[in-house]
Amino acid sequence: MTSKTPTEVTRKSYAYEWYVVTVCMLAYIFSFIDRQILALMIEPIKHDMQLSDTQFSLLHGLAFSLFYAFMGMPIALLADKFSRPKIIAIGVAFWSLATALCGVSKNFLQMFMARIGVGIGEAALSPATYSMLSDMFPREKLGRAVAIYSIGSFIGGGVAFLIGGYVIDLLKNLDSVAVPLLGEMRPWQVTFFLVGLPGVLVALLIALTIRDPARKGLKLDAAGKVHAPSMKQAFKFLAVHRKTFFCHYLGFSFYAMTLFCMLSWTPAFYMRKFGLAPSDTGYMLGIVVLLANTSGVFCGGWLIDWLAKKGYSDAPIRAGVIGAIGMAVPAIAFTQVSELWMSVALLAPAMFFASFPMPASTAAMQILPPNQMRAQISALFLLISNLIGLGLGTTLVALLTDRLFQNPAMVGSSISLLNAFAIAFTLLLLIKGCRHFRESLKHEGLT
To answer: Where are the membrane-spanning stretches (predicted)?
Structure first.
């Protein structure tokens, strides 16, 4: 009986691979803390900068999503050719410093530019991570790996609410805080420094401990060198499977619209309708996001793997349909009830099912495209998803509140209207997408 080498044991246990997932998840936690902390501080920032809901939505949604989206493609092209851990590390350091710069913003324009910097840095993380994970794990483990990585977004979102609530509670009796070298600052400005700067340490951890995995399924050119498809070739691949990617990109983007709508505007809803203090809102929503959203991502990844083992080749898209059906009623109803406990009881399942597309949309993109196109195709999805889900979705809620209802207290009705619209389009597109995805897999010889 032959003994196994240490390398074989490591490969069987996937110990190093799960370490990479964990570190990348940690980076994702910090990314969501840095992008989400703004939502809890809506009232003091609006007051100090004299902003409307629409202007605040541009800071929270458009400023971040615009450059997050458009920088994703060129950064992903680099990730398909060069060291993915180095690209991720640079991105983490960049967005962490940009978050700290939000703390020294004096007006709308300065805050807008700092939020753009956050978006540019975060654009480096997910496409490169998705590409690495697809090279590290077999298809039957990919759903769980992506789900664990994706859990980081909601751990980060929950921690952002908890940290924000704690800092607001800690500094609620102070008009300003003396900061060395920077002078007197408002409590919300100090919060950006507290959540932003530690991310630089995460960047160092990635740069020093993660190596770029060997790329699987690479095509060689006539000279025997790795063939690196251009962005034009990636678009040709998308054109061949245009029906599949149309349903996937738009279906999951409208799904994301519901998720980002709730993450962005639920704090304002609870503060305005039920009179909760920002600190209480942060504690409550932090617990909901940590429990409901993280379990939703994990269950979504488990569901993909379970459906795949049952023989459903369209498992990622099918899991998205199941999640959207489960989300429909609670996501629309939680703002329309009169009791706080009932609203939170509806918000929890809404958040749980709203988290399903995190592993579902990602797994589909890593299964169908060739290896050297995965980061680019993922980046294009993130471009569309963030422009529609985060940029357009959060702004539409503000426009409905400012223009249609003309009353900040009616933000709950704006959330319900937008969610009803987004969920209807999600189901329509993803149900059609199941059939198109199966046909694309047959076309590529993957079934």
So the answer is: 18-38, 58-80, 87-106, 145-168, 188-210, 246-270, 282-304, 316-334, 340-358, 379-399, 411-431
